[in-house]
Amino acid sequence: MTDLFVPLQSLKQGDWFKLICGASFQHLPAVRNLTLAYTLAGADCIDVAADPAVIAAAQAGLQVAKTLAKDAQQRGFDYKGNLPFLMVSLNDGEDPHFRKAEFNPTECPRDCPRPCERICPAQAIVFDNIKEDFSGVVSEKCYGCGRCIPICPYDIIYTTSYVTTPGAIAPLVMSTGVDAVEIHTQVGRLAEFQRLWQAISPWADQLKVLAISCPDGEGMTDYLRAVYDLIAPLKSALIWQTDGRSMSGDIGDGTTIAAVKLGQKVLAAKLPGYVQLAGGTNGYTVAKLKAMGLLQEAERQGAGGRGEEFFPLLPAPCPPSSISGVAYGSYARVLLSPILEKLENKEVSNTNMKATVCLEEDEVLLWQAVELAHSLVSQIKSSQRRESEH
User: Fold this and answer.
1) Burial grade of 111 (CB within 10 A; 0-12, 13-18, 19 or more)
2) Which end of the chain is more exposed for a tag (fewer CB within 10 A), N or C?
3) Which residues pair with 295 in a beta bridge?
């Protein structure tokens, strides 16, 4: 098997790991550095915004990771130079993942305690920022979690949403060399889904993975069956992403329960394809899945697994009986935020000009970031699998 198919092997073995950079997250240095760290830590997929600049930043991180494979191995990490799939997220209608917070900082009273600034997990809200001479929402850092809205004592924060324009964005995104697409949909939007899928379908054969992300709702499983009827037959692998509690994984351990419950519901529907958790996932998720018997046992995964069975880019041959993987968004990003913040605050002076410091340029911070990323990735990557690959 070539390196190209390592992520598909992970899906089949039930230890697929996806990093969600954020469908609305466009802070290019962070996207690049998160991609680099999690690739070196063994991620199978990097999910980014459908923005050519963001895609390019992630691709830059992937290429740097490839050059550091030997260094990673010498430091005890499993990374062997294979690249994770690069995925972009699209939406067929209004969705909390595709929005930005906004407010006019001149409307904020001077004596406001500014709870919005403290609660923002992306540090996207700043006041009187000396370095940037800016107050308000740093748009490229905001990923639409919405936690600032109810906490504002003056009710002046609002959001601006956007919807993928199928005819414009699909060919632009699909021509940039991405490996996978995720479509965010909701129960009752079959016509909207169909319009987006028709725009993507001319490029669908080049995809290695198609993911469908859908929150829970009345009639959800019937809706997913209708979606499957629209997209079948597929040449790519198919993932059902269970969006349990959107963008909440960094809040606390309890948020993962919604993701696990929704995963159980989709598994019970016995849809063709793989089931992958998201929405509230964190450091507690894998332990919860193991305790509930929802992960494949490593001993039952098979010792070989590198042969031709992984070459066909096909959906799961039969409905899975266990969770095939976990995607981490806000939790994975917040885990590395202390490292990225240090990097961002590191000033490179050259005749009073400041330049962005890339993660690989600070060896200490680089491997600290990879170690932190690996602490999360390794939870689902079994020791038995690592041994079988040596």
Assistant:
1) exposed
2) C
3) 323
